[in-house]
Amino acid sequence: MKKEKLNGIYIPMVTPFNADESINFNGIKECTDFLADNGVTGVIPAGSTGEMIALTPEEQMAVNEATVKAADGRIKVVCSTGAYRTKDVVEMSIAAQAAGADGVMAVTPWYMAPNENELLKHYETIRKAIDIPIMVYHNPYYSTCLMTDEFMAKLYNEGFIDAVKERQADVYRQQDLRYLTDDGFAIFYGYDVCPVESCACWADGWVCGTGNLFPKENSEVFHLAKERKMEEAMKAHFEKIRPYLPLFTKPTKDGLPTPWLQIIKEGLKLRGVDAGYCRKPVISELPTDVMDSLKAVLKEYGYLN
């Protein structure tokens, strides 16, 4: 059976937690509904933005299943099944397929970064376990695992993966990957700042974390770019995306990195969506200066009085 090629704009969805750090399943439904109602192609639950590293494999499977159920066929769901142990990835991927997922996204194993022979076997093992599309999440900044274009193409050409979320966000890599593969390989731009440029350079899709908070704006820009309406897309980017980007890129007044995850969750709550809390060690509360900036941006966009 030929697998459907993945494409479009996907949001790596937050995982809402209750104040006691238990999973907030009602919040998962609210977040899924919010994104489905605002024009996204699909969602990726339990990924980096979904605090994957704070979830047990059992919890990750529960979040994935709840999201598939909440989506109810309205949007695609590519379940994040990444883990260090191949055994865990296989178990979660089988569960995702059984739940009705449209695909899985498996980040490369982290910390003790595997070599190419080990990576090949890792993804070959996942491929043998499931029939739905497999997206490799290439994020060497978090995983410490850096793949070459040639090796990534080998994973696809030998039939072990179907797509990539490329977090290095280098349009030349996209060009090179397309040259080394074929049109069946789904290339997803994996960062938030240059969707128009990326769509002009071989990207089939966009995985956009800030789209949790601004899904309508990001979807509009993406679709204009994919329709090759580049002047309109660039104008829309400067009007609908560029104004909020400093919120996610500037450090706090104390010089700490921007608390992007908390900004998304608190921003969603200000927009009436129960995105819940973070799990420690991430502190849910925003510094006063960041909260003030968040409220100002939401007011500018007309989402807060």
Automatic annotation (TrEMBL):
Keywords in alphabetical order: Lyase
InterPro entries xrefs: Aldolase_TIM, DapA-like
Cross-referenced CDD domains: DHDPS-like
Pfam family, one: DHDPS
Similarity comment: family membership: Belongs to the DapA family.
Name recorded for this polypeptide: Dihydrodipicolinate synthase family protein
Organism: Ruminococcus turbiniformis
